[in-house]
Amino acid sequence: MRTMQSVVKLRGWVQAVVAVALVSVVAACGGGGSSSSDNSSNALNGGSLPPSPTQQPIDPSAAANKANTVPITVGPGVNGVINIPTVSVTICAPGPASNCQTINNIQVDTGSFGLRVVSSVLKPSLLQALPNTFGTSGAQLAECATFADGYTWGTVRNATVAIGGETTTTSIPIQIIGDLASSTVPAKGCGSGSAENTASDLGANGILGIGTAPTDCGATCANASTAATYSNYFACPGGTSCVRTAVPLSPVNQQVANPVANFPVDNNGVIVQLPPVPDTGAASAIGTLVFGIRTQSNNALAAAQTFTTDAFGDLNNSVYNGTTVSAFLDSGSNAYFFADSSLTLCGSNFAGFYCPSAAQTRSITLVGLNGTKAGASIGILSASTLFGNSSNYAFNDLAGQIGGNSSFDLGLPFFYGRYVYYGFDQTASGGQTPYVGF
């Protein structure tokens, strides 16, 4: 899931093409193992896959881990969409923590920034109690968060956010998806594609954007000159007649904010930990989201390599097939997405995905702004083979095509069996530069 970037959410391909086949009631089976399933050799069809990483997530229920962890679940979720990692998030109205609601099936998205919740899953009393945010003109703020296949539209409101054992120090701006009438969507400046303002459209009850940026738009939307053309925020007097507007970062931030960056401690980054899964997939996978890096005994920086990035977590000097690409590690994309004409595309049943006749291995060289350079190998099995088992929701070797050859999306398949680190951009306060690692 990518907001305010040239390469954005790609999950909708799976939802539109495959969700009907995958909607079924599945009993959770835990994390899955690192070995291949019995029919793996048939799936390889003479090809080969790279060795699967084997790191196992820490136990979030252990006493030492409860304060700064929360379980991640990959399973059927709210609408049977594959490879969507979710957590539970508690939202409270500002003030005394009495009007609160815990919402399950919020997607963990390291490719976007800020919390977005579908309005229909909120209790009416809580929704009414979340105060609107007002822009410099005094008009109510709304946001159009644009993605590759659509957009979310709704008001910006303030809420206190708790995840696992951590709670934001104050209320922060979040987006409430779908609480404004479709007739209020601006004809100009709101993303192309279809509206994704329901849980069914999203495949989740909301999106938890915990990538490297502290807010979802930063200086682009704070600066009036750039906001006039590029801001994803709109001033809506009376909730209608919405026009693009600048939204300040100081003295009080009004942009949708990364909740983890607003925790009192453990606020400098996150670690996404998912277990290995078999080559042909698993019914589910249970992992752990860890808050903070090098702040507790359970979140040491143990990455084999770390790469400093631009503000949005992108590795813009990476190389694939001899071409410089912008690579990113994105838990919000449910497959690898990249351009490779040597890979056979699926037919219309699985349009947009790769269906090679035999298992394939591809490698990309990731390059950080700090000069760190490392190769990463990925495996690819035919999407038609993987989707042949309609009870599986966790896949580590699913890949699809992306428009153009300038981007390489290391989606959720890359995360299985790895600890993936995201160090937040704290340069505005004289702190660390953003980085990723694994």
UniProtKB/TrEMBL annotation:
InterPro entries in the record: DUF3443
Renumbered residue ranges of the record's region Disordered: 32-62
A Pfam family it matches: DUF3443
UniProt superkingdom: Bacteria
Ranges of compositional bias, category Low complexity: 35-49
Protein name: DUF3443 domain-containing protein
Source organism phylogeny: Bacteria, Pseudomonadati, Pseudomonadota, Betaproteobacteria, Burkholderiales
